[in-house]
Amino acid sequence: MAGKIDARLAELGITLPQANAPVANYVPYVRSGNLVHVSGQITMENGELKFIGKLGRDYQVEDGQKAARLCALNLIAQVRAAIGDLDNVKRVVKLNAFVNSDPAFTDQPKVVNGASDTMVEIFGEAGKHARSAVGVASLPLGVAVEIDGIFEVA
């Protein structure tokens, strides 16, 4: 029987992607006690990189929000791989977001709202979290956004 979060995903028309395998010498997540630390997730969809480029040059805020949403869905997929049932997520604790930005671009927080809004949309009150939104000169594989996260689980 589908759990509450799976039902919410279905209601929203969201199908989580498969959890991506690491592309270097690290693990996708580490569970320590009641926390799951998820490694940075990039804009990978069905094995294909999306949103390659910089915010403020190649993409504007709305596209960046879509990229951040994709990162958020990849984060949730990793949490599912770590714990199985997403109903065991008690809280999204923290997101650290990195936005590949043109030097003049200053709307990183608006971009990262794409991930924050997704967490609240899926987990409700438990999806509200602390976060950082940082502009960077480049990201792995040239992606526009990378986000890691910490989740409290039962």
Automatic annotation (TrEMBL):
SUPFAM superfamilies: YjgF-like. Residues 7-141 form the Endoribonuclease L-PSP/chorismate mutase-like domain. Pfam families: YjgF_endoribonc. It comes from the Bacteria. Gene3D superfamilies: RutC-like (3.30.1330.40). This is Endoribonuclease L-PSP/chorismate mutase-like domain-containing protein. It comes from Thalassospira xiamenensis.
